[in-house]
From TrEMBL:
EC number: 2.7.1.170
Catalytic reaction(s) noted: 1,6-anhydro-N-acetyl-beta-muramate + ATP + H2O = N-acetyl-D-muramate 6-phosphate + ADP + H(+)
Protein name (database record): Anhydro-N-acetylmuramic acid kinase
Amino acids binding ATP: G15, T16, S17, L18, D19, G20, V21, D22
PANTHER family, alphabetized: ANHYDRO-N-ACETYLMURAMIC ACID KINASE (PTHR30605:SF0)
Pfam families: AnmK (PF03702)
Function statement: Catalyzes the specific phosphorylation of 1,6-anhydro-N-acetylmuramic acid (anhMurNAc) with the simultaneous cleavage of the 1,6-anhydro ring, generating MurNAc-6-P. Is required for the utilization of anhMurNAc either imported from the medium or derived from its own cell wall murein, and thus plays a role in cell wall recycling.
Top-level taxon in the UniProt lineage: Bacteria
Keyword Transferase in annotation: yes
One record GO biological process: amino sugar metabolic process
Organism: Octadecabacter temperatus
Annotated Gene3D superfamilies: 3.30.420.40
Length: 364
């Protein structure tokens, strides 16, 4: 692919909240040129979510073929709607993530999708980074850098994704490239919606705390939050990343609280872990732009504004679509992989040197 070639590319992401597949088209040269196209979301049925949930924590050598085929089938359906796209970025579904141990496992075979869809597919974005000593996550930061350039801001900003897990990217948009030293600092902040969703499902048979209603009625158990922040993860310097279910102890710690108090406490645990992350940034960002489903939870957004010493608002304030940012990110990263450009750097994943991860599979 030529250096300046502009590509119509679609990215697809199945996130840790296990709610469905986001797909988004962009037009990009893999650097600063960025236009936005069609988007779609395909929710998983309850039965499909149950299959995926049962595969969490499993590795390729475990028998996950049914769950992996489900990921491929749903993605093939979703992506077949993007007939104009020349290239596909396919993240897959993370089943397990243990970068300093067994590695990282995103289910779904991009080679199968390339055959089915008849287009080149970039996939397995995280493994090379892990093999080179990196965390393999977060990977959206290089895309966040492109967004900050598009915003034409001249002071550091932070982009906070609140999905199942939270991740924050601090960006100095005055730097020339995302891999430039000092351009980015990125890391997972802690659990975000996953513990809240798990509690809502187990206790109340609801998918999530809609509009933060339960959390708003509860009283925060500050002792639980303070105890939670004593976990070694919060004393590690970034970059750092998390598996979805890394904090089982947090859910256990709210077991004896009422539904409302438990949700309020889990919501504050998420906000407080973000506030700790903000303290680790090189300088205070001018503002925090929130993406991912957590920005739709007004209780969480209120708590964030309370504990972070920086203005906090949804990324729509900067003109971007907070539901589709991750799908767009894997579209953008796919073009970078196809062009041989790096997708991570020491400051985003802790990898030894900037590298481009990802495999390209072409239809036979
Ligand atoms: N109206 C709402 N009120 C409260 N919470 C909401 C609302 N809408 C979405 N959410 C939360 O956002 C979650 C979905 O977020 P998102 O789609 O960003 O997650 P994801 O992409 O799967 O996760 P990750 O970024 O960790 O991979 C839902 O499961 C729910 O917890
Ligand atoms: C291993 C893995 O899939 N991590 C996800 C997860 O979901 C949020 C957070 O944890 C982040 O580290 C990452 O996803 C985003 C898209 C990323 O790589 O930037």
């Amino acid at each position: 692919m030529l250096k300046d070639q502009v590509v119509r590319v679609v990215g697809a992401m199945s996130g840790t909240s296990l709610d469905g597949v986001d797909a988004a088209e962009i037009v990009t040269d893999g650097r600063e040129h960025l236009e936005f196209g069609e988007t779609t979301f395909r929710p998983y049925t309850d039965a499909q979510t149950a299959v995926l949930r049962a595969a969490l924590g499993k590795w390729p050598e475990d028998d996950v073929s049914v769950a992996a085929e489900l990921v491929e089938t749903v993605h093939a359906q979703v992506l077949s709607g993007f007939s104009d796209a020349e290239l596909i970025g396919f993240h897959g579904q993370t089943f397990a993530h243990d970068p300093k141990g067994r590695g990282t496992h995103q289910a779904g075979d991009g080679a199968v999708l390339a055959e089915v869809l008849g287009k080149p597919v970039v996939w397995d974005f995280r493994s090379a980074d892990v093999q080179m000593g990196g965390e393999g996550a977060p990977l959206a930061p290089f895309y966040h850098f492109a967004l900050a350039k598009k915003m034409q801001v001249d002071a550091p900003v932070a982009i906070l994704n609140l999905g199942g897990v939270g991740n924050l990217t601090w960006i100095d948009p005055c730097m020339p490239l995302p891999e430039s030293e000092g351009a980015l600092l990125a890391f997972d902040t802690g659990p975000a919606n996953a513990p809240i969703n798990d509690l809502m499902q187990t206790r109340l048979r609801r998918a999530f705390d809609e509009d933060g209603a339960f959390g708003a009625k509860g009283v925060i158990d500050q002792g639980v939050v303070d105890q939670f922040l004593q976990q070694p993860f919060f004393f590690r310097m970034p970059p750092k990343s998390l598996d979805r279910d890394a904090f089982a102890g947090l859910s256990a710690a709210v077991e004896n609280l009422s539904d409302e108090d438990a949700v309020a406490t889990l919501t504050m645990a998420c906000a407080a872990s973000v506030a700790q992350g903000v303290q680790a940034c090189p300088h205070a960002p001018e503002r925090i732009l929130v993406t991912g489903g957590g920005r739709r939870n007004p209780t969480l957004m209120r708590m964030l504004a309370l504990v972070c010493d920086v203005p906090v608002g949804p990324i729509e304030h900067a003109g971007f679509d907070g539901d589709m940012l991750e799908a767009q990110a894997f579209a953008y990263l796919a073009v970078r992989v196809a062009k041989g450009l790096p997708t991570s750097a020491p400051a985003t994943t802790g990898v030894g040197a900037a590298i481009g991860g990802g495999i390209i599979s072409r239809p036979g």
